[in-house]
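User: Sequence in, structure out. Go.
Assistant: Echoing your sequence, followed by the structure tokens.
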Amino acid sequence: MVDIFTFFIIFSFVNKENSLFSKGFIWYSGVISYSLYLWHHVLLSFANFLDNSIYTKIYLSPNNFASFYLNINVLLLSYVLSHLTYKFIEFPFRRVKNFKKVIFLLFLSFILIEIAAYIDKKRGLFKRFHIDFENYAKNFCVVQNEKTGLNLVKKILKSDPVNDGIKATTDDLNQNNFIILIGDSHAFMLYEGLANYIKKLNYNLLLVSNSGNAPFYKDILVSSSVNKKDLEKYFKQVYDIYKILDYMIRNKKVKKVIFCCRFIAYYMSNDYGIYSKFSNKNDSNKYQIVFSDYFKDPVNYNQKEVFKKRLKDTFEYFSLRDIDFYFVLDIPNLGFEPKVYSYQFFELNKALKKIIGINVFNYIDKIYYQDYYKRQYIYNKFILNIAKGYPKVKIIDLSKAMCDKNYCYIIKDGNYLYLDDDHLNITGSYYVAPFIVKNILEK
């Protein structure tokens, strides 16, 4: 309706001389409107790196004045660049009558578009002059299953495991000082740093995890579109973890168990990260990742109720076995890809600082704590309320390691902590490990 109303206002002045739309600022805005359209989004995107309030404040805190003034500056710069683009590119191009020049310019435009598409597909070009690529890439290596862990698990199961995240600091089953880490890919990414610190305290760490199939007590978590024929495989992944736990507990080889997963994704059946694989808005099914109950009665299925029951079942399992059980509230979800929107600009900042002595891009190494808290507290409160009924269950909140009262950090002391929008990298696992160890081993 607004568009139609605006059209009739403008149309009513079309044939009138000296009208508001036939000269002056509004008229010229129409002349350069295509250039404005092209420039404004680019500038807003780059403004995000000058002050991340464009991302975090505009949508969550609309009354933030810093963001308002930044947008005014973006608008003014859009007009300046649009004027130059119109004067030196668009207008001269319209006057070109040489057919060969037209073909050349079109070809050049096509090449530039292809280059831009390639960069967008790759999410940036990492091998740039300002990036120490070898050190940069080390942060994103993911160490796969280890032979030591596989040998240990085979001894217990007496068969090859189907779990895709298995590691251990020893394969000696005669040891009686194991801490077991279970969960999904978030547990997997915790292992490296945690193993390093736990070994120093004369404990051993065993990791058994499944990517995307967090082992809540004897149930599975899978995509709602999964082939039902594959459900048996996913059930075996979870059953094997509890078979390992039963063996280790029965033989008094385990001291403590840590459970780490992206629980919000399982509670909501989707996630709120922009790049989340569960956030497909075009999917007509409101449930993207589900427990097995979904396949029995998809019409009446309620994800949150089933999650609550499975969480209680899991807490009950460890409480009845008198095991100290630690449920990890995971790291803050960024909602954007840090490799693209943080790390590359951090490296560029370092290069520019050597040249001009100042940081050009601000707040690219952190997000506002209040914005994280607004998104997360309701879910954390839900977990904490359930845990109150189970004295053996303790909660470890990783935001206390990643955040202070003002910010949650993506980069700390020059070190990248995130692999993507919601996973730690290896450096990040070393960063949070002392905090976890202090919580589980400090008397």
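User: And one key feature?
Assistant: Residues 2-137 form one domain.
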